Amino acid sequence: MTKLVGAPKLVIWAEKIRKERMRVWQETSPEVFKAIEPLVSRQSNADWWITNKDKGLDAICKLLLGNMR
């Protein structure tokens, strides 16, 4: 997994968020998560994780896949 970048306190907070979100998303839909995991794992900005901390897997898929267009 990519090392997070940002202000030190934000990185610490975002690491906790990332760990929890990855677990929740994987439990929500293992098949979808497996497909989207490479894109999610590349998100290295602590702000991204904090901003998206409450989003479900569907919203994250739309966000990441929408950015690929």
Q: What does this protein structure show overall?
A:
The chain has helices at 8-28, 30-41, 46-51, 57-66. It has four helices and no strands. Helices cover 71% and strands 0% of the residues. It is mainly alpha-helical. The protein has one domain (8-66). Helix 1 (8-28) packs antiparallel against helix 2 and helix 2 (30-41) packs across helix 4. The mean pLDDT is 93.
Concise summary:
With 69 residues, the chain is mainly alpha-helical.
Structural Rg: 11 Å
Percentage of helical residues?
over 70%
Class from helix and strand fractions: mainly alpha
Summed up, the helix count is 4
> Biggest sheet, in brief?
none
Q: What general form does the structure show? A: globular
Mean pLDDT: 93
Percent in strands: under 5%
User: Low-confidence stretches at least 5 residues in length (pLDDT < 50)?
Assistant: none
The number of strands is: 0
Task: List the domain count as a whole number.
Answer: 1
- Span between termini: 24 Å
Helices and strands, in N-to-C order?
A: HHHH
